[in-house]
DNA sequence: CTTAGGG
DNA sequence: CCCTAAG
């Protein structure tokens, strides 16, 4: 008799049917999970870097004085545009079922109310914003997908948008402490203020579970008006893009409720309520496609936690970008102090700037005239060291995006160090004081820059040597990350293709142009000299959650890419509910089926995870409530756990007994035969 | 690839 | 969550 591998009756004696998923699909899903994790790591790191460098800031005197902004009580700047232009508007709305923050951007692990990351928007001048072409490497990742006005290149206004996500405590808390910072939105709520005349839409439609959130805000601008910062809720897992039609402006919308972000487009109470529950000040809206449980018919199912979660859709290009920022900063001859150091830069290839080097400029403020002067720097972005990617022409845009993501991930995750450059010179002596180095509060710090450098310098050429013949398939483009030494920074003004034509290295900048699905592609030639340096266009690549079908170039063992441990994602009650239900139905030995049944859409929950969770659930159910930790699981559920566990354990025992019986019955026969 | 268990 | 032996 053949042992039946699958039990066909559940806890309740009902027949059970489980769909079998194609192996390839499973494999792919698994791979995607890995990829996802890798991506996350990179961005976590990125965020960390940014967080560390993001010091308290103050508005530069020049800047602030020049502003004609009036703030409301919360510190929001409400301004009337002086020029023609549309008020800035950002929209973030939320809809769909379960969402959470993308991993790495909002921590939920710590029980303390996580502050949401904020979007920082600063604008200046006529506020024409536009993504430089190189930033469009990932069209979706572009905060401002497209900017209406073309004068961009002609004006010297600065417009930057930055969304800082993770490590809010660093990004936000400290800054909020600065009550004088009128340019900052103290309220983490939903208001966004900025000097942009463009309307920006965060979040897009189309995807069913897309989140959107409105950040309303008026903006004004003035030539010398520098930055207006606003902390705005940022929607992760959401596409942020600029509206195609600049004229399609709507009046600024304030979705704030009591100064807090409110989700518009909330489809289910859950998402709304969850936001309001203990997250009043958390304007973060996120969605998590992964959080959907198939087979979870419990209407009360809800996800309260805004845990960083990412998803990896294997089909469409759903982006779960961790944070997408598209920053455009332009140097104004007037505002020598206006440019700030930029941190967290996802510039994959900047043909007009110095790769690997962050834009120069830092706000410098004197603070507390006590004994010591302080230098306050605001690093808005970091440019990722130059990357080179080789990809066959036949590759899809999607694979290109993945390639870029991979490359960025490889670099960021590979280990970076920060370099300091002052007056164009690298400051090598780490032991010097800032003062000794010439960085003092009464200095102009716009000559101060930071670089991100690979920890272990490697020969760039090795990576570029790949021949297209090595490229397995169109879906597996070669990654050619390259780490230029910072020393070469000032020489890198050429496009990638100029540098390595013979290697057939495709310049991202070139490809980018074709990456415009919806917006008129502003094929701007990155030539405007004025745009040169300090215009870090910060584009944090969206987190393409789909699997990167490419693998890092093997011959280039990057730093001991310590395979980061997956982030911890505590099971929510809803998940537990789903798990329990599935196990009741399927039993304890069919985790893959459980996964398929109840967590098919939760890419980050593997069957092993479920099995482990069940294990802990059983344990939890057995210990006293006082010993339990984490989000309390309803006793009712725990009871069911024990019941189901007992049932299936018994079931298993019975099976084993049966098996033994069968064997015993067969053995005699065998013996007889042998005899 | 799945399970089952220990770590 | 990770790692891995086993099947």
TrEMBL record:
<dbReference type="InterPro" id="IPR009057">
    <property type="entry name" value="Homeodomain-like_sf"/>
</dbReference>
<keyword id="KW-0238">DNA-binding</keyword>
<dbReference type="InterPro" id="IPR057625">
    <property type="entry name" value="TPR1-6-like_ubiquitin"/>
</dbReference>
<dbReference type="InterPro" id="IPR000626">
    <property type="entry name" value="Ubiquitin-like_dom"/>
</dbReference>
<dbReference type="Pfam" id="PF00249">
    <property type="entry name" value="Myb_DNA-binding"/>
</dbReference>
<dbReference type="Pfam" id="PF23603">
    <property type="entry name" value="Ubiquitin_TPR1"/>
</dbReference>
<dbReference type="InterPro" id="IPR029071">
    <property type="entry name" value="Ubiquitin-like_domsf"/>
</dbReference>
<feature type="region of interest" description="Disordered">
    <location>
        <begin position="60"/>
        <end position="89"/>
    </location>
</feature>
<feature type="domain" description="HTH myb-type">
    <location>
        <begin position="564"/>
        <end position="622"/>
    </location>
</feature>
<protein>
    <recommendedName>
        <fullName>Telomere repeat-binding protein 5</fullName>
    </recommendedName>
</protein>
<dbReference type="InterPro" id="IPR001005">
    <property type="entry name" value="SANT/Myb"/>
</dbReference>
<feature type="region of interest" description="Disordered">
    <location>
        <begin position="654"/>
        <end position="675"/>
    </location>
</feature>
<keyword id="KW-0539">Nucleus</keyword>
<feature type="domain" description="Ubiquitin-like">
    <location>
        <begin position="375"/>
        <end position="445"/>
    </location>
</feature>
<feature type="domain" description="Myb-like">
    <location>
        <begin position="563"/>
        <end position="618"/>
    </location>
</feature>
<dbReference type="InterPro" id="IPR031105">
    <property type="entry name" value="TRP_plant"/>
</dbReference>
<dbReference type="InterPro" id="IPR017930">
    <property type="entry name" value="Myb_dom"/>
</dbReference>
